[in-house]
Write a structure and sequence with these properties.
- The protein is of the alpha+beta class and 90 residues long.
- It has one domain.
- Helix content is 34%, strand content 19%.
- It has a three-stranded antiparallel beta sheet, with helices on one face.
- The radius of gyration is 15 Å and the shape is globular.
Length: 90
């Protein structure tokens, strides 16, 4: 059994239903990353990875985007538990 937990940015006063509906309407595949967006996303993923490493004691595998054109900034996998965290653009 596996579970997906999605985290969304939310503006003050924005209803959760609006957040999810807005995400479903966006087409993330059409939005190519530029160098600045890639750098920001990789930096954000680095902060997430650092916090995860504080909690996960077993072996981990990570991948960080190095080129524009994709929509994933980074992936973190704890090999012994199956925990996987990915940071997507948008």
């Amino acid at each position: 059994m596996s579970y997906d937990i999605l985290l969304y940015p939310r503006r003050a006063g924005q209803d959760w239903t609006e957040v999810v509906e807005a995400d479903e309407q966006e087409t993330h595949d059409d939005a190519l990353l530029d160098e600045a967006a890639l750098a920001d996303g990789v930096a954000t993923f680095g902060r997430i990875e650092a916090r995860l490493r504080e909690q996960v004691t077993g072996p981990v595998e990570t991948w960080v985007a190095e080129e524009t054109g994709g929509d994933v900034f980074g992936e973190f996998s704890a090999t012994d538990t199956g925990l996987q965290v990915e940071l997507f653009h948008g």
